[in-house]
Amino acid sequence: MALIPAPIISTSMDEIRPILRSKVFWVFLCALSAVLALAGPFGTAASLSIPLRLIYWPLIVVTTGTVGFVVGFVGCDVIHAYGVPKWLASLFSGVVCGLPVAAIVFTVNAVFLSPGDLSIEDGPLALSILAISTVISFATYLGFFADRPTGPVLPPYTGRPRLLDRLPEDQRGPLISLEATDHYTRVTTDQGSAMILLRFSDAIAEAAPTPGLRLHRSHWVAIDRIAATQRDGPRAVVTTTDGREIPVSRANVPALEEAGLLPPR
C-alpha cells in the first residue's frame, strides 16, 4: 500500500483547480492584503513604511493563503482516505498545513523585519498560526462538506460497491461510468443512470471494489465496460459497452496503456 494515495491527491487537485483559477479567490486575497497593508497590524505600521507594507502583506497573505488552502484541502482528503472521519481529518490537516504557513511567515519576517519589530513573540506567533490554520481548515470542511444531503452513512464494503446503495433499486447493477457535474455525480449502470448529490472523489471511492480508471477530471469508467479505445492526437477516446464515447485527457492516457487497453506509442 502506498504511503500517500496518489489518486486521492490527483482527484483533490482536480477539484480545487477551478477555485484557484477563480478571480474571486485572488481578488479576496488581494483585498485582504491591501487592508492589512494599510492597517499595519502586529506592529508593522511602526516598523515598515507603507510601500514596504504593500510588499510585505501581499507576500504573507497570497503565499500563505494559497499554500494553506491547497495543503489543507488535499491533506484533509488524504487523511480521510485512511478512515479518519472527515471533520477530524480537517483538524489534523489544519495542523499539518500550519507548518509550511508558519515557515513562510517566519521567512518573510526575517527578510523585512528586525527582532522585536512585531508586537508578538515568535513562540506565541507560531502557536497562533497553527491555531488559525486549524480553525480555517475546519471552516473549509463545514463550507464544503458538512450538512449536505449526500445520502445516508453507508456500511463498510460487502461484496459490491457501496455506491449502488445510493441509487434507486431499479437502477442498481454493474457500474459502467461516473461523470462529475458540479457537486453532483451521474452514475451509469447497465440498468440506467441517476444523478446523486455526492462529490466525484467520494463516488470513485465508493465504486470500489469495481476496477476502474479515471479518464478525465470529470469521468471514470469501469475497466470491464470499456468496449474500444482509440487515440485522438495526444489524447484518446474510450467507447463504453453502452455505446458512449468518453474523452481521455493527455495525463490519463498512460493509465490506459499500462492497463493494456491502448497500445503504447
Automatic annotation (TrEMBL):
Entry-linked Pfam families: LytTR
Stretches that traverse the bilayer: 24-43, 55-75, 87-113, 125-146
Residue ranges of domain HTH LytTR-type in the record: 175-262
Listed GO MF terms: DNA binding
SMART domains from the UniProt entry: LytTR
Key words, A-Z: DNA-binding, Membrane, Transmembrane, Transmembrane helix
InterPro entries, per the entry: LytTR_DNA-bd_dom
Protein name: LytTR family DNA-binding domain-containing protein
Organism: Fuscovulum ytuae
